[in-house]
Amino acid sequence: MSAILKVSDVCKRFAGQHSQQAAVDKASFEVSEGEFFAVLGPSGCGKTTLLRMISGLERPTSGQIKISGSPVYDSESGVDLPPNARGLGMVFQSFAVWPHMTVAQNIHFPLESLKGTESLSKRQRSERVGEMLTLLSLEDLRDRPAALLSGGQKQRLALARALVTKPKLLLLDEPLSNLDAELRIRLRRDLKLLQTELKLTFLLVTHDQEEALSLSDRMMVMREGRIEQIGTPEELYHQPASEFVASFLGQGKVFDNKTFLSAAGYKGAGSFDASGFMVRPESWVISEMAPTTDGWVKAEVLTVDFLGGYYHATVRAGGEIFQVKVSKNLNLAVGKSYWLSVSSNQVIPLGETKEATQ
């Protein structure tokens, strides 16, 4: 599948930034046509700056950005197309709907800026607005002032306005972060259904790991302006390239104690092929019954938290304190001891030791 977006060695240094670390440092990646691609990272990692450079709202210091094979920014040739010439749509974190306009007027407004071969007749613009109202379930709100919409309605309006020009690529900057938890989950589902139905390319920037994991076909993790890893959600979760990626995606405990993991059933823990090992809470098996085989360690329960469909227990075993996810109620009691085990395929080796590289 062809790349609709290609970013090559893009850097961004802001005026007065004297440190060696750039806001975005030599970022290179591609997004395929029809793909839902997520950029994930903590606050200040450079993900929003990267999105703004792709959109044309921020000028890179160096590098090249291509959309559908054509440069929209190239530091060497001097190409730097304005945002309205890049064929993109964008949904902002703040929604940025125009409060003095009605829902229909908000959706119609971007069509007025189309020029040349992209310009539409009055009838075509009206039809396009109608399509978006239907697509985003906004028909009954057509004449309502945008200022009177709820948060979820404003989000759907922002999507309709961004999609009405039929962009090559839709950029989403933390689009669900201002919504409450229940609405965020519902709109997350609607967003994925919309992308699949329209067969469009979405580029999402978020700090919410659950959002990125559930929505994306592929994702990219950033840290301090640099790309840490790119891959499918499953690859990044189960095969993280670094301790940072492993820790940022989901919860888990990093163990340096190979002897403890070996006692808990991990067969590779005695080798020198990793500098650390992560085990996620859901990877542990917990039992009240005394084991009849090797590969179990005794653990004392320190706390038990009920989280709806499962429990999180904080335990202490072999001098380590970590969390265990329990899917059913074992009547765990604080202060009581249980037995824990973990299989080899549930342990994530991290990095290489000097012994492994010599």
Features:
358 residues, alpha+beta, Rossmann fold, OB fold (Dihydrolipoamide Acetyltransferase, E2P), 2 domains, 6-stranded mixed beta sheet, 5-stranded antiparallel beta sheet, 10 helices, 19 strands, disordered C terminus
Question: Could you walk me through the main structural features you see in this protein, from its secondary elements to its overall organization?
Answer:
It contains 10 helices and 19 strands. Helix content is 25%, strand content 30%. It is globular, with a radius of gyration of 25 Å. Mean pLDDT is 89; it is low at 353-358. α3 (122-135) packs across α4. It has helices at 47-55, 103-108, 122-135, 151-163, 181-198, 209-215, 233-238, 243-248, 258-263, 354-357, and strands at residues 3-12, 24-32, 36-40, 62-67, 70-74, 79-80, 88-91, 169-173, 201-206, 218-223, 226-231, 253-255, 276-279, 285-287, 297-306, 311-317, 320-326, 337-341, 347-350. The chain has 2 domains: 3-248, Rossmann fold (3-Layer(aba) Sandwich); 253-357, OB fold (Dihydrolipoamide Acetyltransferase, E2P) (Beta Barrel), CATH 2.40.50.140. It has 358 residues and is an alpha+beta fold. The strands form 4 sheets. Strands 7-8-9-3-10-11 form a 6-stranded mixed β-sheet, with helices on both faces.
Offer a quick outline of the entry.
With 358 residues, this protein is α+β, with helices and mostly antiparallel strands. It is built from ten helices and 19 strands.
